[in-house]
Amino acid sequence: MTPKERFLKRLSGQEADMTPVGCTTAYGVVELMRKCGYERPLADTDPVAMAQLALAGHAVAGFDWIKAMGWDITSVSQALGCSLGEPAIDLQYCIASHPFEQGVDDLECPGDLLSRGRFPAYKEQFRILREVAGNSAVIFGMSEGPFTCAANLVGTTKLLRATMKEPKLVKKTLEVTAEALIKVVNFAFSNGADYFCMADPTSGCDLLNPKAWATFVAPAVKRIVENVSGPVVLHICGNTDKIIPMMCETGIAGISIEEKVDLKQALEAAHSRGVRVFGNVSAKSTLFIGTPEDCYKEAWAALEAGVDFLAPGCGLAPNSPLENILQLRRARDEFFRTA
Amino acid sequence: MPSIEESLKRLHDAVVAFDEDGTVLAAQDYLDEGHEALEGIMRGLAAGMNTVGQLFKSQEYYVPEVLLCAEAMQAGLRVLTPHLRAGQSESRGKIVLGTIQGDVHDIGKNLVKLMLEIAGFTVYDLGVNVAHQTFVDEAARTGADVVGISAMMTTTMMGMKKVIQILREARPEVRILIGGAPVTAEIVKMFKADGYAQSAADVVDAVERVLARETA
Ligand code: B12
Predict the structure, then answer these.
(1) Measured from the CB, is residue A145 less than 6 Å from ligand 1?
(2) What is the DSSP string of A123-154?
(3) CATH number of the domain enclosing A267
(4) Is the pTM of this model over 0.90?
(5) Tens digit of each residue's pLDDT (9 = 90 or more) over A249-258
(6) How far does residue B108's CA lie from ligand 1's centre (Å)?
(7) Which CATH class is domain B4-83?
């Protein structure tokens, strides 16, 4: 079975010979950049550098699948009008302004969305990735999800408050961000993505009431999933125990979860709804400051628990040691050799 | 007439229920009943916000609820504060607060600010992506007792070490608190900060502790 066949079988719920291993969030790791010779911030905007770093995840870090569309979760917000802060080799692009803080009356999804910001570069990156690895490995696109994008546009505090005081503002903003995401996700699929991961950290339980998740976020995700031409995976940081059942009822193909989540319970909730689980080796602590042995053990535990795709629980911290990351692959290979 | 305990509880409960109008009415009645404004603020409104902090910590409340509780509390403060007696509205200390350079996470920092202001501290909020030297300059300009630094990413967290170094040199008398998701007790030791808090509910305690150590 090629890594691609294995991945696609597993994602659609069919038998696969072993659990795919990789990263469904960002892997802009400094050591990986140094190894392949293509560093961020160049690799944030230049299609060749972006593609080479993406491929290094596959060739050097041992990931079964490949990430397209950069190393941060700001691209859709940028195309909708947010300005970005200065990136550095170990610091991703971040949101520097909230252009709709004063009101969303003028907010709409522009017709030329996909020719704005970094989308033209992503298009070229997809072409390179398809050419080099498209037959053997899965390629995925990624961006921020609808609520995070909405919070970027109007300001996080303002949007959170509005969930209780101005539901109309929240709905209107989410309508536009969902519309933009439908375009962006379909853009990825038409350029060769096999699946798309939306990261929606601002909608997590550290910030938003699960009831508000049901009212506002679930319908937006549902609408996106219903209007795109391929499978969507939803990543939300933090402890998402309380919203996982709802996440799994939006029509998504997979969820991506952190170490704070109760993995057994998440697997049950997901599998009973036909959804696959990516995770959940700690990116914040184990992979970043743990020993290689810690990483191996945590990866092994996730495999033993029956995770569908072995992956970090969140985006890899830029200064994570490559030696730690390689333990994911090692654990997976040895787990299935002994099995 | 209700007892003072009943009236304080009404203030407390209105804040917890994020009932802005209810808080204003409770505050007016409280004054009409002839009670002390200061006690109403401390044992009514601020006590309510403390409960809110606990509810947030135990995930019964989320950030939006906390924001609305704070608005209710502030509405109550607008009624009670003008009735404080001379000297009663004195600040308990000055705190410079900001999110470190390279970091734009501010939800946590804003909650910290809220809790400190409620407890009677004056907070100078420097916002997000604050240059290292700015913490030092602003501490000097304001004569701050405490500097609070927030960092949410492992990369930017390393900058706190730098700020602590230059701050110690320039203003050794200033106490330094750090916080944010990646900050642990080990980091506090490693960076030689004076203290930290894991949740908004514990921030006031942490400030009181570092200030007490200073005068002890
Ligand atoms: C919401 C969020 C965002 C929002 C922020 C909106 C905003 N205005 O703040 C957005 C979407 C913009 C965002 C952007 C990014 N984020 Co972010 N984000 C989060 C998330 C999900 C929640 C943070 C939060 O607000 N928590 C809720 C508040 C209430 O809690 P808190 O911040 O911990 O604060 C409490 C305590 O820590 C303490 N405290 C905080 N500060 C202080 C200060 C003092 C002095 C004291 C005493 C106490 C104290 O009290 C607070 C109140 O209880 C976290 C993951 C998580 N679950 O923690 C990731 C997270 C912080 N983000 C992360 C990343 C990687 C990013 C991005 C790089 C993503 C990207 N662009 O690709 C950018 C970075 C931008 C930048 N340069 O800063 C990572 C950081 C990884 C790491 N450890 O290095 C995290 C941990 C997610 C992960 N990968 O695991 N993010």
Answers:
(1) no
(2) HHHHHHHHHHHTTTSEEEEEEE-HHHHHHHHH
(3) 3.20.20.210
(4) yes
(5) 999 999 999 9
(6) 8
(7) mainly alpha
